[in-house]
Structure formats: structure tokens, C-alpha cells
Amino acid sequence: MVACSFTAAPEDVALKFLDATAEFRFEEAKEYCDEDTAKFLDLAAGYIKMSNEQPESLDFFITETEIDGDKASVSYTTSKGTDEQTVYLRKVEGDWKVSMGKENLEKEQ
Question: Which domain of life is it from (predicted)?
Fold first, then answer.
């Protein structure tokens, strides 16, 4: 018997990650990111617990996806009318994962 494996597209992973983080479901969001980003989510979760911030229900709209080998970028806007933003992903053990590593954060500046 041969098992069929399915790798979610970068857009799908980005949307799941964005939905989970916008609604403060950080444990779920960790399923869609690399280890460094998971550490960042732990910090964010701690901050949220100390603040009065409330989760937002947003719709995310993909505007562009670029794939270059094992790296991808997914640009999006939200139903809140935000400017276009980008989520970076990389392949980890064959699966796309959101990666907020130092090199990606420097790209945003």
C-alpha cells in the first residue's frame, strides 16, 4: 500500500496562520510555522495575556504569491483595508511553514 502525501500550498498555510494569529489561537498557529516563529508566538501570547487586546475577525485576501525553490512569499490585504503585507514561508521537511526569521524581518524594513 502506498500512502499519498499532500503538501498544502503556501497561500493555504499563510491563510491558516493569519486566521489563527488574528484570533489569538497561537497554539494552532504554531502548526503552520517554523520553530523560530513559534517562539515569537509564545512571546505574543504572553503579551496578549497582559493586555486588554481583543482578537479580530478579519478576512484575508491573497494578492500575490512568489515561490523560489524552498522559499515563498505571500502578499495579502485584509477586510480592515490594511496596506498590502507579506508573509514569508520556507519548506521544512517538505511542508510550507511561515518563517519570521531575522532575514525576513529585515526585508520588511
Answer: Bacteria
Per-position pLDDT tens, the chain of length 109: 445 556 799 999 999 999 999 999 999 999 999 999 999 999 999 988 888 888 878 999 999 999 999 999 999 999 998 899 999 999 999 999 999 975 654 454 4
Cell of 21: 494569529
Listed by start position, the domains of the chain span 10-107
All three cell numbers of 84? 498590502
Q: Cβ neighbours of residue 68 under 8 Å, at least 6 residues apart? A: none
Strand 95-98, strand 85-92: pairing:
antiparallel
Specify the residue for cell string 486588554.
52
